[in-house]
């Protein structure tokens, strides 16, 4: 007698929010692996990054989007469009807010846009390690009264507090669908995009404020088949001044980026990494969207 196949459940969740509310940290913590770069600079996430969480018969596909903010040139407008479009590819929306800052105009604007998608919304009130329950009461009241949001999750992506309740809430709401990814897969990123993302992260973490978020990294080659990962990438600056900063005195800065990136990549790939970095100038960087796309 043939057994009836067990039902499986899956769905896509778009993570949206203003810059620096902790979207990438949230995703990394939920997945349990560093797949989205984290820095103090706005708009460091430059494309949608899928995080995949599979538990038994249930699979969540997370779409991490760039922080939605005021466009500064064609590049920033492109990032905003990526974030906007992700909402309409999802079954649910996780709207991330910063508990330590309350509801700002930029948050209200994002929530207005979220409401237009007419999808279930999970309001994640992040950075509770920097706030209190009392301070979040007015925020929750506004989210409920003005936007009709019913699901609230106070969390700290930094410490992990409250995240299991959020994950459980998402898992329970998944529609019946086949799984798209294998149980062991945690992201759809290619090795090329991983190298570029990790190098960019180290630039943002170690650079002074004069380097804008428009710095780009293009992976030229990566070989993960041998005992050592071999990769080469180019860092693009907007002008000669940026190139000078990126290189540093006696190539000190690019050497530092190479060293820290190798360490992170070794943790990700699980084996030693040989990494070559070069620095170039592209004066049309802000408007040149295709030259640095990994798609």
From TrEMBL:
Span list, region G4: 126-129
Keywords, ordered alphabetically: Cell membrane, Cytoplasm, GTP-binding, Membrane, Nucleotide-binding, Ribosome biogenesis, RNA-binding, rRNA-binding
GO cellular component: cytosol; plasma membrane
Cell membrane among keywords: yes
Region G3: start-end pairs: 64-67
Domain Era-type G: 9-176
Subcellular localization, as worded in the UniProt entry: Cytoplasm; Cell membrane
G2 as annotated region, ranges: 43-47
Subcellular location, principal: cytoplasm
Pfam family, one: KH_2
GO biological process, alphabetically ordered: ribosomal small subunit assembly
Lineage: Bacteria, Raymondiibacteriota
Keyword GTP-binding: yes
Membrane association type: Peripheral membrane protein
Classification via NCBIfam families: era (TIGR00436), PRK00089.1 (NF000908), small_GTP (TIGR00231)
Region (G1): 17-24
SUPFAM superfamilies: P-loop containing nucleoside triphosphate hydrolases, Prokaryotic type KH domain (KH-domain type II)
Purpose of the protein: An essential GTPase that binds both GDP and GTP, with rapid nucleotide exchange. Plays a role in 16S rRNA processing and 30S ribosomal subunit biogenesis and possibly also in cell cycle regulation and energy metabolism.
Binding-site list for GTP: 17-24, 64-68, 126-129
Family: Belongs to the TRAFAC class TrmE-Era-EngA-EngB-Septin-like GTPase superfamily. Era GTPase family.
Name under which the protein is recorded: GTPase Era
Gene: era
Molecular-function annotations in GO: GTP binding; GTPase activity; ribosomal small subunit binding; small ribosomal subunit rRNA binding
Self-association and partners: Monomer.
Region called G5, residue ranges: 155-157
Cross-referenced InterPro entries: G_ERA_dom, GTP-bd, GTPase_Era-like, KH_dom-like_a/b, KH_dom_type_2, KH_sf_prok-type, P-loop_NTPase, Small_GTP-bd
């Amino acid at each position: 007698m043939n057994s009836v196949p067990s039902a499986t459940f899956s769905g896509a969740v778009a993570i949206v929010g203003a810059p620096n509310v902790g979207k990438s940290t949230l995703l990394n913590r939920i997945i349990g692996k560093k797949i989205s770069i984290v820095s103090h600079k706005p708009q460091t996430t430059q494309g949608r990054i899928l995080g995949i969480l599979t538990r038994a018969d249930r699979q969540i596909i997370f779409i991490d989007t760039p922080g939605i903010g005021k466009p500064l040139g064609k590049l920033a407008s492109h990032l905003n469009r990526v974030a906007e479009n992700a909402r309409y590819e999802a079954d649910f929306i996780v709207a991330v807010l910063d508990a330590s800052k309350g509801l700002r105009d930029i948050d209200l604007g994002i929530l207005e846009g979220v409401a237009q998608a007419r999808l279930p919304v999970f309001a994640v009130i992040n950075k509770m390690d920097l706030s209190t329950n009392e301070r979040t009461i007015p925020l929750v009241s506004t989210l409920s009264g003005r936007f009709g949001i019913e699901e609230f999750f106070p969390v700290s992506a930094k410490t992990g507090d409250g995240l299991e309740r959020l994950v459980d809430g998402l898992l329970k709401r998944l529609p019946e669908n086949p799984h798209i990814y294998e149980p062991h897969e945690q992201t759809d990123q290619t090795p090329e995009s991983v190298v570029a993302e990790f190098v960019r992260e180290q630039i943002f973490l170690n650079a002074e404020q004069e380097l804008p978020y428009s710095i780009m990294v293009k992976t030229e080659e990566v070989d993960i088949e041998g005992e050592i990962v071999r990769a080469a990438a180019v860092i693009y600056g907007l002008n000669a001044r940026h190139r000078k900063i990126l290189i540093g005195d006696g190539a000190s800065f690019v050497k530092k980026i190479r060293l820290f990136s190798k360490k992170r990549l070794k943790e990700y790939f699980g084996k030693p990494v040989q990494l070559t970095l070069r620095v170039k100038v592209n004066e049309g960087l802000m408007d040149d969207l295709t030259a640095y796309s990994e798609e």
